[in-house]
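Chain A, query sequence.
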Amino acid sequence: MIKFCIITNRNKDKDYKITDRIIKVIEKNGHSCYLVGGRGPDDYVRPTNITAKYLEKDTDYIVVLGGDGTLIKIARNLAHKHIPIFGVNLGTMGFLASVEREDVEKGIEDIIKGDFTLEKRMMIKGRSTIGGVQSRELPALNEIMVSRAGFSRMVELKLFINDHLAEVYQADGILISTPTGSTAYNLSAGGPIVFPESRVMIIMPLCPHSLNSRAVITSPFDKIRVEIGKRRSSADNEEAEVVYDGTTADHLNSHDYVEIERSRHYIELVRLSDYSFYDSMRKKIGNGED
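Chain A, predicted structure.
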C-alpha cells in the first residue's frame, strides 16, 4: 500500500475541492493518505510551519497543492527526509509542479502505476558571519541573495571563490542560484537558464555599476564567500541583507560575510512520462504557443 501525505495551501484551494479529488482517487485505488492539519480554522498548518514532525511513518510521497512558493517552503523544511514531492500547480507559473489542477487524477494514477521518473534537484546552504560570530546554517532551493539594505543605494560586494578574490562589485546585490533557481529571480536579472538536473551554481550580479559584469557559473564543489565592503569613505558601514528563497535571514555590515556551498540534501520531484523541461519552459516563459 502506498501512503501519500497531502499538504494544501488553503489560500489556493479554499474549499478543498481539488484536495478531495486527490483523496478520492487515492482511496479508490486502495491506497492511503493523510492531510497535514485539519480543515477547520484552528487546526490548519501553514506551509512555512510544516516540519518533519507532521509526517507519518512510512510516507511514500508528499503531494503539495499550491504555487511554486508553497512547494519551495515545503522542500526547504523537508528536504532532509528525501521523500519524493508531487506538486499540483494552483499558482501562476508553476515551474516546479508535476501537473496542473485539471490533471491531478491522472497524475496520482500514474504514480500508483509507477509510470513516472524522479528528478533530483540540487540545493545550496549558507551561513553568515556577523561581527565575527557565525549565524545558523540555512538551506535554499532557488537562490541565496545578498543585497543592499537600509538607505544604501548601492553596496560593495567582494566575491571569493575557494578563498580567491574573483570580483568586486558595486551593485544592488548578488544572486547565488541553483539550476532550479535559474528560471526564478536569476532569469529576471538576465542570467542563464540551466537544465534543472545540472550540478552547478550560478553567480549573478544585480544591477552592477559596470559594463563588464557577467554571470559566473561554478562547479558544485566550489565554496563561495560574499563579503560586504566599504564603498564610501564617508560612511561608517555598508548595510546589506541575506535572503534565502525570498525570506530575509540576516543583516550584514561592512566586513561581515556569508559563505555558500552545495548542500548534502536535495529534493526529488515526481515527473510524469510526458513531461519535458523544454516544453514547460516554452509554454510558461517562452513566446511560442502550441
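The chain has a mean pLDDT of 90. Residues 123-264 form a domain with the Tumour Suppressor Smad4 fold (CATH 2.60.200.30).
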